[in-house]
Amino acid sequence: MKISACYITKNEEGTLPRSVTSIRGAFDELIVVDTGSDDRTRAVAAALGAHVYDVPWQGDFAAARNAALARVTGDWVLFLDADESYVGEPSLRALVEAMAARGDVDGVRIPLADVQADGAAAHEAPVWVCRLFRADPLLRYGGRVHEQLYRRGGTLRLVDAPPAYAFHHTGYQPDRLPEKFRRNLALLQQDIAERGERPQHYFYLADCYFGLQRWEEALAYSRRALAVPVVYADSSVKIRHILIEWRRAWCSARSGGCRRRRRRSFGVSASISPPTARRCAIRISRWRASR
After folding, report:
1. pLDDT tens digits along 96-111
2. Which of 4, 63, 182, 184 has the lowest CB atom count within 10 Å?
3. Alpha-carbon 284 to chain mean position
4. Which SS3 state, helix, strand or coil, does residue 151 take?
5. What is the pTM of this model?
């Protein structure tokens, strides 16, 4: 059983070594597709034993990931971001071998938790992500941003790993969030300009606008996201909490508290500054824990 570990990178010299070290023993081949680093990422990757390929950035995360998949020679793929690390105790290789013996599994979902740079746990609950999957020409990524794995001409067959398997993610540090939101918003707008606005965009647009404190747009796209079928896991929960924060701010400004006045409208005063995305995430986590 040959396992290929894959990364797409840009200026990840500080994060890539930790990620690769965390999965040592779980892969036989290391592929790094670099999309234009101007630091030492390429040299660092090569020192870690990677086959490094330069692929010009096209403003499309799925295209970059698929460029890496095109170079895979293994039977299964372990595809991580450079700011993700494996922190579980069980062997990832043993998990792959067990899944490979099954004919009804394309990939495995494993919980991914956001943590601070010092390793301290963030307040948001983990999400289940597919980072392990078969090296199959029919399995490719789609989406310019927030790319998703899919099976061409069929349904992607995923199973959840036991909870002892886990990844940590350090990419959502407060000082890096505005830059990521601006980048993601620009890619979403480019996709909309090329293919038109679709329901799949609503949740991600709401998330970007909320993170950039563009409150009116966040509210508008939150409403749109709730009016269509939920596309991705946890989107409905997060959208509803964005709306809850708006309602809380509106009630507080208009009546000194929601107890004295409750209205169905989610309208707010333009002078109100709703809570940060971090506070929203904390409330989401508490809501989940209470269920």
Report:
1. 999 999 989 999 999 9
2. 182
3. 17
4. strand
5. 0.75
